[in-house]
Amino acid sequence: MSTSASSSPQAGSRPGGRSARVRAAVHRAVQELVADETSEPLTIPVVAARAGVHATTVYRRWGTVGELLADVATSRFSGDIVVPDTGSLRGDLERYASSLAKDLGDPDTLALVRATLGSGGEQGAAACRGERRQQIEAILERERCRGGEPPTPEQTTDALIAPLYYRAVFTDEPLSPEWTRGLVSHLLGD
Amino acid sequence: MSTSASSSPQAGSRPGGRSARVRAAVHRAVQELVADETSEPLTIPVVAARAGVHATTVYRRWGTVGELLADVATSRFSGDIVVPDTGSLRGDLERYASSLAKDLGDPDTLALVRATLGSGGEQGAAACRGERRQQIEAILERERCRGGEPPTPEQTTDALIAPLYYRAVFTDEPLSPEWTRGLVSHLLGD
């Protein structure tokens, strides 16, 4: 029996199985409820009812609303932006910033970010930050391979990622293409 | 009777009156509950119980948890930072950024920002942004009066306010004095 068990360690949670269907339904329910501003406060029974699953299933798997939101945000922001390769640092940063602006400019995404920050603590904040740091490092590393001398990841985060998140989350100003390109220009010292 | 009424239009809500005491107790309860990460989800009955007032009083005055959080955040961030006058733009911006870093670096303040973003929608976001824009404009205007040519409010927000908020809210990196001074240097083109 132990041989059989070790040959299928994922039994019960294989892709397409019941476990994956529950996860998909619960994630979808969270995204719908968060996007609907008029809805009641997000609780596990409310999510379970919308997803058509037992509340105990949701409690057992995620524990709290904060952990559930962090899980949904992690899925949402993992691999959401492909690191571009346009042939120049400026081109890569402009393409990347434009994708991030589009992402954060979506009202449903913004609602998910705010809700996750509100209930998910440090774990939720990390989920909303996603893979920005790794993506920026990949862009800067590619420039170094071209023989260029790019800014540091910290400078790039401060000058590009931070204004995009701040404007999206804290203000009602648009993340316009001109403004986004201006951030790249300022970072590159134009 | 109408003369008497118009001579005391604030009757029932004068400073130090019952209304002010209720407001102070409810605000304090919200701040304590938000700071206590282990507590149950924030609801109006939970806040009312902690504040020692009737839930109906809280519902009547604030309506929803989101509006209540936005009100607490507005109080917290109104006039929280005095616009400095050190004699130079660099000095003023460094002093201002240092005050904001200290403010946002406080765990209880951060918990209030995240909770308010989570429940307060656009109104909550505006409350957390506080008077940053006006404060920055006052600093830049003072420099113009000195005959200087300061950056624009938008550039200053992107280069100074945004990284401080992003680092505080989305990362676990410290808002160190060296890093904060570096933001000012980069903005001023050193």
TrEMBL record, chains A, B:
Keywords: DNA-binding, Transcription, Transcription regulation
Region described as Disordered: 1-21
One family name in Pfam for this protein: TetR_C_11
GO molecular function: DNA binding
Biased composition range(s): Low complexity: 1-19
Keyword Glycoprotein (UniProt): no
Gene3D superfamilies per the UniProt record, alphabetical: Homeodomain-like, Tetracycline Repressor, domain 2
InterPro entries per the UniProt record, alphabetical: Homeodomain-like_sf (IPR009057), HTH_TetR (IPR001647), Tet_transcr_reg_TetR-rel_C_sf (IPR036271), TetR_C (IPR011075)
Protein name as it appears in the record: TetR family transcriptional regulator
Organism listed in the record: Streptomyces albus
